[in-house]
Each structure stands twice: as structure tokens, then as C-alpha cells.
Design a protein that fits this description.
With about 525 residues, the protein is an alpha/beta fold. About 40% of the residues lie in helices and about 10% in strands. The longest helix has 22 residues.
Length: about 525
Amino acid sequence: MPGPISRRQGRLAWCVAMALPYILLSAGAAAPQTVRGGDSGAAAPTWRPCEDEAQRGFECATLDVPLDYDRPAGETIDLALIRRRATVPSERLGSLFFNPGGPGGAGTNALPAWYERYFPAELRERFDIVSWDPRGVGRSTAVRCFGSAEEATAWWARQPAGFPVGDKERQAWFAGRAELADGCKQRASKLLPHVSTPDTARDLDRLRQAVGDEQLSYWGISYGTFLGAVYANLFPDKVGGLLLDGNVDPLGYADGAMTGKARLTTSLRIGSDLGSAATLDQFLDLCGQGPASRCAFSAGSPAATRTKLTTLMERLRHRPVGEWTYAKTVDALRSSLYFVTPGWTDAAETLQALWQGRAPSLPAAPDSTAYPGFEQEAAVVCSESPNPRVLSRYAELDAFSAARAGDLGRRWVWDYEWCGQWPATAAHRYTGPWNRPTAHPILVVNPTYDPATSYQAAEVMARELADARLLTLQGYGHTALVNPSTCVNQYAVRYFTTGALPPAGATCRQDTPPFSPAKPTGGIAAGGGGLAEARIR
């Protein structure tokens, strides 16, 4: 799903996943799956300067929470917290919580990386910006299914790159996921039933109390929108301002019982494959409308550029270029669509290199001393969102999604095969209702062409919530936050500082259109904004 830059193969600028999770999972050592006995009190956390160089200027803390909220005085786990204090203390309004998505996105990594680049200055002035690693993730008490970082990295290296193609790779994929499931069962059995979204929503309310806020202010992206919707319906009277950006269809995500009889994967129910296909169509249209000096992969027209990509993919099926196989290229192309700048330009350059028979360089292998946390996204999704348990079904869905969404559809199907052999089910699921009246209205934001969380999913979210307003970003990429729009940011500032919603039907444009050097076009009135760079290094 939908959230951080991917640890999967591909050029760095290509990488994000609904994932926005993988690089966000693992800066620093993840806490082991230690579950302690004793009471989880409500004392405020003790904030200290963070120790990591990447977190300079931020404060870190740890909060004790119950492993199982049905037993609040029972065993406890730790949550790792991070914040940056309001830069104008005299005008401080409270805390603004941020969740980077995933599931599995680690806020202790995402917030320092994105704080100055993406969060509007007016919000930084008036709010403490706070994030955390959700239970099971990163520096919090984490799901770890391998004995060491080296063991986890070696396991990942043995898996087919991108997704499996053909029976031989599918059998290797199934075997690898079975190995993973067995490790999770052995090493994380106590934690796995308690990393669901309702558990995290209850943690979020503990965090709200810990910072002393009467109501929650929250900006959630990607999977973080589903978390926000669950929070709004578990704690409707505590909703201050909730901005849901890059929306998961809550009905599709939570639909059905955890019986293993689901016919579609989570990704297909929420329409991620269709969102990717629609966004790729836009990529090819816009690329083909310009010269190669603007988009390196342009063939002179949208139709010719589309044919060129089809030919390239067919060629790669039979003859990889260096390490660039068909599946690896599809995987990288999907990830490239998340960031318009510079992802789309870099994608075009890489596709053109492959077209010419040149193998683009791959990023250096991740630091094998840092636990990568590949399994932490699966730990949440597979425990609470129905997916098929019959392994042969995934090959059928590969063909089904390819027919309706092309090459990228295949990638989305195999993202959720983890769940086919997952060893745990959430002790607490939330499947609705979604329309409990909240203390304040909710702001829903979505690009029209989002490759992971489609605009149609945002329409469902806005319709299902009791009191929500949809703000449309007429643009591309996964979430408005990391594909900046000054217009969206101005509406966000007004919403969090005054409670004012955008007018019904309001739209915004992105600051930097694909494949073209954009000029500032104004703010809310013009539906535009100034130049912005979306690159994350």
C-alpha cells in the first residue's frame, strides 16, 4: 500500500511503496519483541535529544502501552516517539501527529527526512510535529522473524526479484514465504495478534493523552488514512483535525472475515492495481507529448511511447539487461510513479537506458547491520485484511490483474502473497461502522492519479465518514504531502489552525508538473503554487 522509500531494487529516486515503508523501517536497531509484565501507566514520556545524527534537532522518547488493551494492566510493549517542537512557542496550538503509512512506516525515520522539505512552515511554527514507530515496527517493540539483520538480508536476497514469473519462481516464492511464516511463528507469536490497526489507534489515543492534548490533530498518509478513519470511529469525540492524504478504501481493506476464503487480495479490493495503471497511462501520455529532451523515453507521441514500453517489457521477459529483469523493471516502474519529481524523469531515463541495452546502476546494498523489517508491513495487513489462503489463487489473480491493469497489476498481486501463509490473525479487527459523528469534520485529500491509493478510494472514504470534505489535487503521485502543492498546504494550514474546510468541490494543482520546469502560479485562488522539489535522498 500504501507509504517510505523502498529497500527493493531500483534507482533510489524510483523507490517508495504502499509501501512508503521500507527505508523508513530500519534506521537504527529495531527493538526486540520483548513483552514485559506490569502496569502501563499514563505518565507523560520523558523527552530527550535524539542520539542519531539523522535526527539532529529532534527529541525522542519512549511510551509504555499495553500489549493487549483487553488487559490494560497486563503485559506491556514500548513505542518509540519523536517530535520537533513548535518553532514559535508563543503561538503554539498543540501537537500535530504524523503517520507515514505503510503499514510499517517508521515515523522516527520519516519525520526527520520530511519535516522541513514537506511540512508547511506555518504548521511547524504553531505545532509540535510528533510521530512514532507503530507497534511492531522499527524502534518500537518490533516484529522480527529472523535471528539477525544479516539473516533477514540473506533471506531477501534469495527471493525472486520484484515478483515471481513462471512456475519455478513461484515455487521459490511460496517456499520463501513459508520460511518467513515459520520464523514469525517461532519468534513473534506473542506480538503478532496485537499489531492491528485498532491496537495502533488505541496507542495513538494514548499518545494524544501523553502530550496533554484534549483532541487529536493528525496528518496521515497512505495506510495512515485507514488508521485515521479507525481512530475517528473508535474515538469520535476526540477528533480535532484529521487530514487523510492518499486514501485507502476502508470498505475494501477491511471487507470480509478472516477465513482465508477471500477471492481478491487487499490490493485488488482497494484498487491499487487500477490506480497504478491509470497513473502509468498518464506517465506515457505526458512523456509522449513532449520531446526526448523533456522525457527521455518519449517516442514522439503517446501511442508510440505506449507501444515502445510494451515492446521493452516483452523484450525483457526473454532477455534481461544485466540484472534488470522484466519483474525488476516492473517493480521499479511502479515505485517510480509515487514521486513525480524526480521519480518520473528518472524512470524515463532508466527505461530509455534499458531500451538501448544499457543496464542502469543499482543502489548499493542496504546496510546489513540494520534490521530491514521486511515482514513488518505483512504483520499488520495479513493479520486483519482478508487475503486468499489457497496459494494457487495467486497465479490466477496474476492473470486477472494483468488483464485489467497490465504489468503493474501483477506486482500488486504478489505484494500480498505473504498473507497466504501468515501464521496469525489479529485479536482485534475493525470493520465498521465508518460513519460515527465526529467532534470536528475530517479533511480528505487525494491526487487524481495516485498509483497506490486511487482517487476513487478517496471518494469512498469521504462518503463513508460521517462528516468529511474531499479536496482534490489535480495531479499525480502517491499523496499530496510528498508531491507538493502550495494550494493544498494552504488549505491544510487553515484547517489545522482555524478548523476551516475548503469549499465543497475545491481543487488544487501541483507545484511541479511532470516533465516540465514549472513556474510559480499562485496559491489557493489560482489553484497552483510555487516550485517545490520532491526528491528524498
